[in-house]
Structures are given as structure tokens and as C-alpha cells.
Amino acid sequence: MSLNDPSGTFIAPHRERQVLGAQGSFVLVALYFCHQIKAGVPMLRAVMIGVAACTLTNTAIAETIKLACQYTETVSFQSGNEEKHGGRIVLQVDTKDGATMISGTGADLSIAVGTLKVGPIVDLLDASDEGKWDITNRTTSGDQSAWFTQVVIDRNTGDFNYYRSKEDGISTIASGTCEKVKLSARKF
Prior knowledge:
2 helices; 188 residues; mainly beta; 9-stranded antiparallel sheet
């Protein structure tokens, strides 16, 4: 992403969020929610992230998977200009009672999609199966513009694809590969 983006909606945090264990998931939700607002992510999107995460992050999370992903990204502006970046993002996949939330923040990329219709989510599609997560959300922002976000992660190969676009405006495409992070192994 770029600070040159005049819309100000794609400015992401320039540091990775710290990861807490499942016992601190409520704190993680609060920190992530506040961090998104400070980083310039639209307020309604931050509310959606917080509500969906709160719904999924109670004491009985069925499964939490963390993925460390290397990606390349292309941001296309309405003017026709493009910017290309590369980076690393840690994604957290939470599933409970058939609902899935994929979220993460990297240096230039913030991701949040889920299979719950909460907050500004006006439509969603869950094409996930045993071999992949494939979640698409359509949301509206405060100015009533529509956003389309899709995340596809192949659970066998680790291939990762992300697409986000604003109706008649900016779009972001990112792809790369992910590796599962062992939650029981700590380096520090």
C-alpha cells in the first residue's frame, strides 16, 4: 500500500500485530480493533472485524490455525497507476460451529473476511471445502461505497490469493504461499 493513496482507505499498519494465545483472544480482538482504527482502515470495516472476531473468539474456539505467508501485491488506483510490493503477513484462521474468520495484518496488507453476516457485510459467499478456504465478502463503507474482498487459501499447497476492490476505484491483488505456524513451538 502507499501513503500516496488519496483515498486513505488502504493505509495499513507498518508493524505486525503481536499474537496472543487462545486464552488472550478477547484482548487480541480489542488490540486488533483499536490498531485497525489507528492505521486508517475505514471505521465500519474495523467494527466488522471486531464484531466478527468477538463472535468467534470466546473461550470455546474449535480451531485456531496461524499461517505465515510471503506475498507479492499489486495495488491499482483509479487513475491507472499501479504500485507493487512484497511482504510477509501472519494470518489467523478461527473456526467455530461452522463459522470461519480469516484475519491478519502485515506491513502493507490487512485482511479480514468471515462467514458471518455481521456489521457492514451485505453479502457473503463461502466456497470453502476440505481442500481450501474460499471466502468472499461484499461490504459497504460509511460513504455507502461497495467493497468486494476475497481470500482463497489452498490447504494442500499453501497457495494464497487475496483480492479487494472498491466499486469504481482502487483494487489490490496479492498472492503467495503460506506455511503453518506451530502454535506449541516458541522461539522466544
